[in-house]
Amino acid sequence: MDLELQNKVALVTASSKGIGKACAESLAKEGCRVMLSSRNQENLISTANEISNQCNAKVLWHVCDVNNYDDIKSIVSKTISSFGKIDILINNCGGPPSGPIDNFSDETWTDAYNEILLSVVRFSREVIDAMKKNNFGRIINITSISVKQPIQQLVLSNSLRLGVIGFAKTLSTEVAKFNTTVNNIAPGYTLTSRVYDLAVEQSKNSELSYEEVFKKYTKEIPAGRMGKPEEIGNLAAFLASEKAAYITGQTIAVDGGFVKGIF
User: Fold this and answer.
1) Averaged pLDDT for residues 186-209
2) Domains and CATH numbers, the chain
């Protein structure tokens, strides 16, 4: 299927590795010009070169801490000045610390709020005018399956990612008339460093090795395996396309059947 994304411009946050990188790769394969962002310059350079060579695409990078509003404004400005426009925004970020509720101070909650929710608000606010001007826009937020089925020890993620869902639903109704959609992808357990870190942390608080924790995760998934980052990236590319122009305000799980609820 031709997703008709040739020469569209995409900004993908936290994209030097994991799901963010997979989203950038999927978009580049479809002909998008891509701006990568991360706090780690070395990883960015390596990833930009890798995707550019593999996909024969124009890939730029810019260091950005999603907790820093000046960084956010800088990378949006850099994307528009480099490519002339911005069509697609993939909001992605790392996960906050795991642990029980009484582990976290107000400061930790504030840091998680800035990273998970406020970064989405800020990035979206910065790109909307450019999308309205071109009468085309796609905002896709990478959240977590925890927005549909809360996960123990992830109170920060469980709480704040739901805020992203509410924001996206509201924004989607305001920008729909500008051929701009806003959707969320809710990955289940996916083979990333984040899931590895969670398994290691859980193993410290139990008698299980992290390998056994991995097996426990997988046992709860009807598909019998964890997801691959590229499976998230493929959905992101579809949602970014004209083929998905009538899908907006939705939260789509990519979880191998992990969520047991109907909706």
Assistant:
1) 80
2) 9-190+228-254 (3.40.50.720), 191-226 (no CATH)
